[in-house]
UniProtKB/TrEMBL annotation:
<protein>
    <recommendedName>
        <fullName>Thioredoxin domain-containing protein</fullName>
    </recommendedName>
</protein>
<dbReference type="InterPro" id="IPR036249">
    <property type="entry name" value="Thioredoxin-like_sf"/>
</dbReference>
């Protein structure tokens, strides 16, 4: 009986060793597939970096800042109020609030900010988080986009752009 148990122990040990070799081979195959996938992704051309929205172009040569917001976001509401406070007719840019809910237009009522309520356009602009500030050139081409976390962020983004325009 002892010899039988010893044989079972040896066979189970050999089985474990064989399973380790099988797992190592399988892991090697997975790594090869991952490497092929990474090479394939690198070979695919990147999406165009310049997006254009004709609606955000301007005839006077001034850029347009679009604040993309969502209805149930308190941070979005605060940034919209701040944009409404700083936007004015004497500035060298246009301000737009882009949202999919009518309620968001109330946030910039009685200001120089143009509310655009268009769910399809929000999908076209396709921001990853709200609130996001997107700058469009006079011909409607996107120049950059940034998530705006605070009023200071918004002020800094608008001030940096104004400083760039003055130095140009």
């Amino acid at each position: 009986m002892r010899a039988f148990l010893d044989s079972l122990a040896v066979l189970s040990f050999l089985g474990t060793v064989l399973l380790l070799f099988a797992f190592a081979a399988m892991l090697n195959m997975v790594r090869e597939l991952q490497a092929k996938l990474l090479r394939a992704q690198a070979a695919v051309p990147a999406a165009p970096t310049v997006r254009a929205v004709d609606r955000f172009g301007s005839d006077d040569g001034a850029p347009t800042f679009v604040l993309v917001v969502s209805e149930h976001c308190p941070n979005c509401r605060d940034r919209a109020h701040r944009l409404a406070a700083v936007a004015g007719p004497d500035l060298s840019w246009h301000a737009v609030l882009l949202a999919s809910a009518e309620r968001c237009a109330e946030w910039v009522a009685d200001s120089q900010v143009l509310p655009v309520i268009d769910a399809a356009l929000v999908g076209t602009v396709a921001v990853g988080a709200t609130p996001t500030l997107v700058k469009y050139s006079a011909d409607g081409r996107e120049e950059w986009r940034r998530v705006v976390g605070s009023d200071d962020d918004l002020d800094a983004l608008l001030a940096v752009d104004s400083a760039e325009r003055l130095s140009a």
